[in-house]
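Consider a concrete sample entry:
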Amino acid sequence: GATPRFFTSSSPLVTGGLVIVQLGGDADGSVVAYDLASGSEKWKWTGDAPGYASPVLLSVAGTKMVVAMTDKKIVGLGVGDGKLLWETPFVVQGRGYNAATPIVDGDTLIYCGSGRGATAVKIEKAGDAFAAKELWKNPDNSVQFNTPVLEGGFLFGLSANNDLFCVNAQDGKTAWTAPVAP
């Protein structure tokens, strides 16, 4: 009763002497940081059920944060204390899952999901607060159980429709798509 529908399927994030993981199920989901040397719990954030994507590290204005795609949103948590720094909704539409690991490019975060294409946001600091400012959204190609790769300013991926795709990561426009032969 404490695991997601298909059990935990994300990789841990290791940083600053911590190992950070998404755990739990629909009723008791969390992002938890453990001390790498002793295994003792250092902090726990319990704001949503887990997704299936792996948490990633992002630094903005000198603040290191864990970015986690949960069941219904994407959150930025302080690495040292697990405090919520920002969040943006990312609710699955219809049948699908939040399973594609967010992609970090400087202070820009690119995230993808089933039926929702790809979105790029810039994480900005204003005073003591952080916010995700949308840069672009591309609904052309959606992924389900894989994560696109960012290389040379382009996002390359395999869509749920079995097409290879390339999206310009600067403006979000589709550069090309090509069907995958069976």
About this structure: The longest strand covers residues 117-126.
